# Entry
Amino acid sequence: MIRDITLGQYYPGDSFIHRLDPRLKIIAVLVFIVALFITSEFYGFIFTAVYLAVVIIISKVPPRFILRGMKPVLLILICTFIINIFVIKGGDVIFKLGFLSIEQNGIKMAVFLVTRLVMLIIGSSMLTFTTKPMMLTDGLESLMNPLKKVGVPSHELAMMMSIALRFIPTLLEETDKIMKAQLARGADFETGSIVKRAKGLIPILIPLFISAFRRADELAMAMEARCYRGGENRTRMNALKFSIRDLVAGAVTVLMAAGIVITKIAM
Amino acid sequence: MSINIENLTHVYNRGLSYETVALNNVSFTINDGEFVGIIGHTGSGKSTLIQHLNGILKPDSGRVVINGIDLGSKETNMAEMRRKVGLVFQYPEYQLFEDTVAGDIAFGPGNLGLSPEETEERVRNAMRLVSLPYESYAERSPFDLSGGQKRRVAIAGVIAMNPEILILDEPTAGLDPRAHREIVNMLTNLHKNSNITIILVSHNMEDMAEIADRLIVMHKGEIFAQGAPEEVYYERNRLLEIGLDVPQPMMFMSMLEKRGIDSHRSILTIDEAADEAERILRGKI
# Structure
């Protein structure tokens, strides 16, 4: 049932990519995205495609798993392709039907944009596939630290995020349990009008809210009982360390970006 | 109603690196009117097993047949089967949502489309069975009750569906001894006074020895042992090996035996142990 939904999308593993510093991975994804957007000619994608392929192969995340994550955005991809193929004009006319026509530049642009989008989505999901949500928030917090000077509560934001992430599986499990319990009492969530179905959610939502508040209360109490005081002078159990591994990965990322910039200038 | 489980297998997260076989080729039969106890560790497959009995989980292979009706068949009316097989989950008090006790218990019968009179009759009857007097509890909020009372309200909510098979997953977990006793007595009476089949999942060996007709021991998704309580507990060492316990009275008798005091072994409850101890003591004098 609801348990089958993969949320957070982490794919457990112990590859080179999995063990990289999350800060480096976040920055690398940003560089990768910028690189995708400054590329304006097709062959520019060679660098990003090779880079992405290498990351996927090293990470050992099965392609089937990656493709499954693409499913929700399939519709957007198809729409982008169709709109571009018809709207962009120029070059030889390939197909004509009434006021609709497909011209050479349209096809070029449509393929170009879809390639960019696919790489964008796969590239950013590689970050979540290979980084535990907790590591991700640690990385974000550390990257946001300089913003503390201008009053951004980076520690608190990261804490809120990690608590939210921590409770997603718990609440999913809880929802699953409550749904099953109400099903066993003859509840029906799937048939009837929208109003009836919305009403059918009440027996799930009320117990779910009650337990979410109870958990929040208990967690706050447990944190206070252990003298939690927020960000000031707090150290971590697993401090983030920048290693040779990260240096290598960083260098490869810089090379990829340099390749893109050079081809761009040379053109 | 009788239950027939044939070669039931269930796998979670099939095809992923974290796939787990929760049930592996499990077969057994439960007869009409029997009181069966299922014991096993956390993760031994008990909860997965009972969720197959009313069709909330579907088998990956194998069959679940209840009173001759195959739950896997497309023609089976699942709503009807869910009414006949009442399932009380662990910590059922977390499913309460109405603002009155009576309203919450009426949720199940209401879903069956019964008339208001009949629903009220069902609610009164269910509350009597879990010994919560209708007059003093019907209009109270379930959230103001004690843990044990909340749990009884939740169990009443399932009983009000008039199931022919009642399955309870750890109904006494986390309760104080008195609330625990009340639930056990309630189950004993329910089984005595109506001829419904009851399946109880529990860790509590004493309870099981006292009330179950038959035990099924689960271990790592397979049936480890089954039979009458005295037969199952007789193989004490095997149970201890997989981290399960045997009832204290049995431990007591076997310790007496070790010290050279002869007794017979089919002692399960404290009462029987006391009688036996008395007999031995009197014999000595």
Chain A touches chain B through 22 residues (CB under 8 Å).
